Amino acid sequence: RLLESDLIDQVTFLSQLFRGEFIFQAGQGLRRNLEDALFALAADDVLTITEDNGVRWVGLSEKERQQGRESYDFYCFLIWPFVDAAWLGAVSLHCIVPPLGSNIEWIDMKYAQDGAQLFGRTLYHQGDLSYFESINKEALKNAFARFQEEGIVLVTKSKDSKTGPTVKIADEWMPRRDEKTGEIKAEGKLWDFIERISQHRREGKNRRDGATVSTRVLRLAAKLNKDAFER
Fold first, then answer.
1. pLDDT digit string, tens, across residues 159-205
2. For residue 231, with 0-12 CB atoms within 10 Å meaning exposed, 13-18 middle and 19 or more buried, which class applies?
3. Which of 28, 49, 82, 141 is 20 to 30 A from 169, comparing alpha carbons?
């Protein structure tokens, strides 16, 4: 079970992350929508809402557990591909981190998004992505648009109509590299953002060891990063 306040915090994060993907009933606000959803799931005996010393808790009902989380997993399967797409978009930004000593900052947007898709295909076949739908070009395009809105990336458009927009990671979100090896460190504001998205991903045999996954992801990102800045 989960504290209602923690649930609200997590739902708020996901709501902001997917505000371009879903349409909510106007005028009600997130809290009202969440309340309606919780009470509807409680009425269907999927969730239980209890109160202890004035604090509300939300958890799976005993009936839902006995049924193997059938309804709960169904709802999760609806959202997991979107979570994977957001996670992929965020981790793919490591492919456009400038190498140490590089004078190149801006990368062609189309190249970055195509690289993210290639990155995603490889992660999918490695078992680090659960849903092939998350590699969809439109999903990745939406992810980049959200990152721009959040100030994670900066996008500039050329006056030349033949030249497409370019993108770079904002300074405050830029991952750090090891001064000796040049390898990107699994830390910082962007990595914390990725880790928070990852909390909502589907569990799988290749997702249980976070350290192993981060090592594989950064190793692959390093290969694509080299291609991006040497082409």
1. 776 778 899 999 999 999 988 888 888 889 999 999 999 889 887 64
2. exposed
3. 82
